[in-house]
Known about the structure:
Largest sheet: 7 strands, mixed
Structural class: alpha+beta
Amino acid sequence: MTVPDGLRLRRAHPQDLDDIMWLEHVSFPTDAWSASQMSGELYSPHGYYVVIETVDDSAAPSVVGYAGLSSLAGNPVADVQTIAVAAEQRGKGLGRVLFTELLDEARRRGVREVFLEVRADNPVAQSMYRAFGFEHIATRPRYYQPDGVDAWVMRAELPVAADAAPTPTPTPTASTVGPIGQEALDERG
């Protein structure tokens, strides 16, 4: 998946907390994570968080999307913790870009199964997850509070690198999203 012009995908760092929290609160007004929860995720050695930010020479970068994955070292299971895209940026495939990067990182970590929860009243997200091979395996009644909305638990198996089957993720090239890390942080230099 390619990142649209004027935007960049990079690894999140703790200095992104304020931007992420602003987007968290506008995206999830009734059940947003607290700043301390999100900070813990950004600092966790088990987490992998990415952001999509604007890239414009005339203005400071602005975070317009973020996503996070959690998996313990050596554990073949990972959980998608969160994903959000600013309302004005939706419909451009940014959710797919973020989600693709999380699944790529899960593969790099040797993960075999990925789980996530999604609101039962969010068919757009459910459809995207299904397109990546996720299936609804359980329902957690009234999981999202204070709204009392059920959560769908979804799961997908990831192929081992040696026997990897085709997925919705293209092979990274110079024009597509691929492994990201410290080098992306240093691009602003």
